[in-house]
Amino acid sequence: MLMNDGSGYDAARLAALIEEMRPRLQTAQELVLETLRDAILGGVLPPGTRLRQEELATAFDTSRIPVREALRVLEYEGLVSSEPHRGFTVTSLDADEVEEIYDLRTVLETHAVRLAVPLLTDTDLEELGVLFRGIMDAEDDDARLAARERFYQRLYGVTARPRLVGLISRLRQEVARSLRWMRVPHSPEHHQAFWEAVQQGDADLAAEQLASHYRKITALLRRYLREGRLASRGR
Question: Is the pLDDT of residue 177 over 90?
Answer without folding.
Answer: no
